[in-house]
Amino acid sequence: MSPAYLESIVRALRERGVEFATGLSASQIDTAEAEYGFRFPPDLRALLEHALPLGERFPDWRSPGSEFVQDRLAWPADSMCFDIAHNTFWLPAWGPKPDSMKDAQAVARKAVRAAPFMIPVYGHRYLPAVPCQVGNPVFSVYQTDIIYYGLDLPSYLFAEFGVPNPFQVPDLPREIEFWSELERLNG
C-alpha cells in the first residue's frame, strides 16, 4: 500500500466522521502481536502504522489488553457458541454433538482456536492473520452468519466506507481454512 493510497483511506474515512491518531510504532505493533500471538498482515499493518482509526467500533491497538479489544477477539467463538445454544448450529466435521452444552461449546471454541486467528478491523468485521500476506479477505462474523465483506482489505474499505479502490478486485477470495467453509454454509 503506497503512502498516497493510505492517505486517501484516511481522507475518505475522515469525510465519514472517523477520527485518527498517529499511526502505531513498530514497538506498539510488536506489543499487540505478542499479546495475542498473531502477526498483522502487511496491508493492515501498513494502514495501522500510517494512522490509527479511532471510535467505538475500531480496536485501539495501543491498548491491546483493553476490554473492548478482548471482547472483539472473543466475539467469533462467543457468537458461535450462542448459535450452538440457541439456534442448533453444529458442524458435522466436529463429530456427534455432545449432550452437555458446555462440552459442545468447548468443541466449538477448540475449533476456533485451531482456525486462523481473526483480527478485528471494525465492529464485527475481521481479517484473518493467516496467511500473513497482502490480500486476505475481510469477513463479517455475526454468530455463524459469516460472509465475505471484502475480497481483500481495499475492497472491504470500499464496501464498508466507500473508500475509493484503485486496485483490481480479486475474482475470488483467498481460501481461509475454517472461515471460508463457514462462509460457504451461508452462500
Textual characterization of the structure:
It is a single chain. With 187 residues, the chain is α+β, with helices and mostly antiparallel strands. The protein has helices spanning 3-15, 26-36, 42-50, 67-86, 101-114, 153-161, 179-186; strands at 19-22, 51-54, 118-122, 125-128, 138-142, 145-150. The strands form 2 sheets. The chain has a 4-stranded antiparallel β-sheet with strand order 3-4-5-6. Helix 4 (67-86) packs across helix 5 (101-114). The longest helix has 20 residues, at 67-86.
Number of domains as seen in the coordinates: 1
End-to-end separation = 31 Å
Based on CA atoms alone, the radius of gyration comes out at: 17 Å
Q: Which H/E pattern describes the elements?
A: HEHHEHHEEEEHH
Uncertain runs with pLDDT below 50, 5 residues or more?
none
Alpha-beta classification: alpha+beta
Strand fraction equals: 5-15%
Shape estimate = globular
Overall mean pLDDT score? Answer: 94
- Strand arrangement, major sheet: 3-4-5-6
The total of beta strands comes to 6
Helix content: 40-55%
The largest sheet, given as strand count, sense and whether it forms a barrel, is: 4 strands, antiparallel
Q: Report the total helices.
A: 7
